[in-house]
Amino acid sequence: KEAETQQKLANVVILATGGTIAGAGASAANSATYQAAKLGVDKLIAGVPELADLANVRGEQVMQIASESITNEDLLKLGKRVAELADSNDVDGIVITHGTDTLEETAFFLNLVEKTDKPIVVVGSMRPGTAMSADGMLNLYNAVAVASDKQSRGKGVLVTMNDEIQSGRDVSKSVNIKTEAFKSAWGPMGMVVEGKSYWFRLPAKRHTVNSEFDIKQISSLPAVDIAYGYGNVTDTAYKALAQNGAKAIIHAGTGNGSVSSRVVPALQELRKNGVQIIRSSHVNQGGFVLRNAEQPDDKNDWVVAHDLNPQKARILAMVAMTKTQDSKELQRIFWEY
Ligand SMILES: NC(=O)CC[C@H](N)C(=O)O
What we know:
Layout: H1 2-8, E1 10-18, H2 41-46, H3 51-54, E2 55-65, H4 72-87, E3 93-97, H5 103-113, E4 120-123, H6 136-147, E5 158-161, E6 164-167, E7 172-173, E8 182-183, E9 190-193, E10 196-199, E11 224-228, H7 236-243, E12 248-253, H8 264-272, E13 276-281, H9 297-300, E14 303-304, H10 310-320, H11 327-336
Parallel strand pairs: 1-2, 1-3, 3-4, 4-5, 11-12, 12-13, 13-14
Antiparallel strand pairs: 5-6, 6-9, 7-8, 9-10
Helix pairs in contact: 5-10
The chain binds glutamine.
């Protein structure tokens, strides 16, 4: 009988990378002061026995770090392992436990490069498991529920936080401390309640199986860095990043991705020297940067990131530049993904 139920359940692999969901604090009152990345994946799984009702779950520890320390090499390592598992006949879905600080970057990266329609769900928590009202158990339960559900196939990389199913492309950590941290300018795709998914929207942008990018063809990512726009800004950071080898600079601009007149000449010069300039916006609730609005992008040969925030624009630029160095192609990619 037990063997029969096991056969009916989906096979879900949990790839653990660290973060608060694997964190531990000194006391139950420590919801914000704790150490991330302490618990191994077996303890995470053992902490939610109800996972066994949803799927045949097994875990792998890919790394054990706080997500602000994730490097491009870590992203590639994780992405390649996800692709191997997705190719395996006995894997139906993949869950990645992750720190929340760069979760949106990893989710978007996987959304661009994984050539599979099998569900890939990235999940974290805002409080460590040792805290009162810890959110990790339910977030993980929801992630496994979504990853084992056939309805989740072909919808791109997903994020389950705070009972919501979000698109890995759109979602961003928009609030810290609070458990309702992850939001998208375009709204969640659905909800997951008591292990059941309720869907309301589909992503309109290219992803996974419809993407032109494939993790199996990527062996390294080019240097792309971000510089911040603000009052009284100088061009020092932009020049320093280029000098240090940046192939593209994401301008985390004010408002519509506007650029200070004190910075414009340096960016024009950098572009002439081959560095791609990509205008994004650092406004909190969803930037929206259009070509030739605020700056003459056609004349400057710059690219706009449209609705992608600076950290997501960095991910797309890196992936795109594994294939093209042409600014027009880059702009096409920024419209399509
Ligand atoms: N809530 C979190 O996961 C944050 C912990 C840590 N800074 C990380 O991103 O891994």
